[in-house]
Write a structure and sequence with these properties.
Blueprint (H helix, E strand, L loop, with lengths): L6 H23 L5 E4 L3 E2 L5 E2 L2 E2 L10 E9 L4 H16 L4 E9 L5 H11 L6 E3 L4 H10 L7 H10 L2 H8 L3 H16 L7 E6 L3 E2 L3 H6 L5 E8 L2 E3 L13 E4 L20 H5 L1 H11 L4 E12 L1
Parallel strand pairs: 5-6, 5-8, 6-7, 10-13
Antiparallel strand pairs: 1-4, 1-13, 2-3, 8-12, 9-13, 10-11, 10-12
Helix pairs in contact: 4-7
Length: 307
């Protein structure tokens, strides 16, 4: 026996429930034009950078290109790291004039031997993996140097009043300064001196990329190409604000590094603390834009997965 309200309204309601996520996603990604780009940014009333939208432009990927991928990683990420290397290696192999190679950056001294073995194994037939081999003393010195950026008891107390507990944990309970110190050293040792390198991608070993990532980002005739990404299983439209960017969602031209004078830790603002160090990827991009580098944001496709 049919419900008292009849079959037609029931069917209509069911269709609405099925289709509503599709319309929501369409609304999420819709916008005027598919790409965002400007050479200069203004400041909104809330102090964040205001960004004008411009029409989508389709160019051809700039060839030749040499993309050096700097990968921060820990021993527990070995399986994800292999997948990441296979994926980006394949993207470079299928395009003539495109070279992709990798710099592995252990963020803890205990994992160095793991990546020495992995480098030797995965280099067979390719020879495209480099490894930043730092002594234990580097990490110890970096940990000492993070003193001004440490989460002291007064800082933690202030953060507890201002942020959620999971945010305080994220800012205070990891050695972000050490991680970025190692990353900056890799940029100085392997990217800045590389005369053939045209682009650099800094990412984490457990991130992933769509098969078209390199082609779509190289298509942009800008100094920085920023992509939409998945975070916590939800698509994120990137924005030039803290929390709106991710380390691995930005392909940069090497000249953004200013011959090594502008890397992650040297881009931090005056008076930076643990939170700003955690957000060093934002500050590096923000600093580049303040110096007049051009950028584009690809918001119509999800091209990166952030673990």
């Amino acid at each position: 026996m049919p419900p008292v309200w009849g079959f037609k309204p029931l069917i209509a309601g069911t269709l609405l429930l099925i289709l509503s996520p599709i319309f929501l996603m369409k609304s999420f990604w819709s916008g005027e034009g598919g790409y965002l780009g400007t050479h200069r940014l203004g400041r909104g009333v809330d102090g964040r950078k205001s960004i004008p939208w411009v029409p989508k432009t389709d160019g051809a990927p700039s060839d030749p290109a040499h993309v050096r991928v700097v990968i921060r990683t820990q021993a527990r990420e070995e399986l994800q790291l292999r997948s990441l290397i296979y994926s980006l290696r394949a993207q470079g192999q299928r395009k003539k004039g495109v070279q992709v190679d990798f710099v592995l950056v252990p963020t803890e001294p205990a994992s160095l031997h793991v990546y020495q073995h992995l480098r030797d194994e995965m280099n067979v037939g390719f020879n495209d993996l480099l490894l930043l081999e730092l002594p234990d003393s580097f990490y110890a010195i970096a940990k000492t140097n993070q003193g001004p950026y440490s989460c002291t008891e007064p800082v933690r107390t202030a953060y507890t009043k201002k942020f959620k507990s999971e945010e305080v944990h994220r800012y205070c309970d990891f050695d972000h300064y050490v991680y970025y110190a190692a990353t900056d050293q890799a940029l100085l040792d392997f990217v800045v001196p590389c005369s053939s390198c045209t682009h650099v991608l800094v990412t984490n070993g457990d991130n992933g990329y769509a098969p078209s990532f390199l082609e779509e980002t190289r298509r942009q005739l800008t100094d920085l190409a920023i992509v939409a990404f998945i975070h916590m299983n939800r698509p994120q439209i990137p924005a030039i604000r803290i929390g709106g960017l991710d380390l691995g969602a930005v392909l940069m031209r090497v000249n953004v590094l200013d011959e090594g004078r502008k890397v992650f830790l040297t881009s931090l603002p005056v008076g930076a603390g643990p939170k700003e160090v955690h957000d060093a990827d934002y500050w590096m991009v923000s600093n580049a834009l303040d110096r007049g580098f051009s950028f584009s944001v690809l918001k119509d496709e999800v091209l990166m997965y952030h673990h």
